[in-house]
Amino acid sequence: MTLKYAFFPGCTLESAAEELMISTKKVADALGIELIELNGWTCCGASHIQDIDDFLSTSINARNIALAEELGVDKLLTVCNTCTLMLRTAKLKMDKNEVLREKVNVGLDRAGLEYQGSVEVTHLLWALLQDYGLDKLKAKVKVPLTGLKVANFYGCHILMPPKVMGFENHRNPQSMEMVAEALGAECVEFDQRLACCGFHAVFPAQKEVMDMTGINCLSPKDAGADCIVTPCPLCQMQLDAYQPDAQKGFDRDITMPIIHLPQLIGLALGISPEELAINRHVVDAIPALQKKLVTV
């Protein structure tokens, strides 16, 4: 039976992180997962809109969920930590507050939509463990990632707040390690594993965030990692695209390749780095992969 999800790509996949859209679709096809992109989805608000208008924040994400409900699927899937958080926050509010739900649905009715609460919001990382299964994932591996040492960088929004996210222990998550090990990779322990990437504060606190970026790269480097893997495009962007800027504040070389989770999976499925758009990254990850993985 084919797994089928409504798919919310979010703004980043259509712009700065197009390589994640490419690799997500490639991996979904290889695993036999059907992704149905929402028709007419809108930005989730990127964890900022609620500070200006909380009702609007809830409404736009309730609309996104209602679009998924129209597809007749059980789950709405994202590959962005922040999109997952925003959608799940809206769902929690709508499901617990009948007055709010009625008020939001008045607005949605003008667009011919109604939020019903029938769809669960999930992330690709969670879906791999909860729906697809590690045994099935292992069976799909064509190129075991033996010898590749990965540093799993979770990012804040896939873990917190736990009352909204709640997939696993937010103080000691293991989902990333479970997936990486199923692919044959070796996971390294490093101090910044659960650190913030700083993306959402890069403009008001640029110096502090650049210092964080450098430390987030040096920590896994000192632990012997070949690359950082993250389930969030915003974390990937902060650690990859801003890495050259962060380097200016450090005497030591902080160079560390930053890989999207679907790209790591795709490598193990036998998909080339170019097909996974790894060549689009700011920090060239391909040499590190070629050094460890003979078939890459």
TrEMBL record:
Matches recorded under PANTHER family: COB--COM HETERODISULFIDE REDUCTASE SUBUNIT B 1 (PTHR42947)
Naturally occurring in which organism (per UniProt): Cytobacillus spartinae
Coiled-coil intervals: none
This protein's UniProt keywords: Oxidoreductase
InterPro entries referenced in this protein's UniProt entry, alphabetically: Cys_rich_dom, HdrB/HdrD_reductase
Occurrences of domain Cysteine-rich (ranges): 5-88, 150-240
Recorded superkingdom: Bacteria
Protein name, entry field: CoB--CoM heterodisulfide reductase iron-sulfur subunit B family protein
Keyword Transcription regulation: no
Claim: Chloroplast is one of the keywords in the record: no
Record-linked Pfam families: CCG
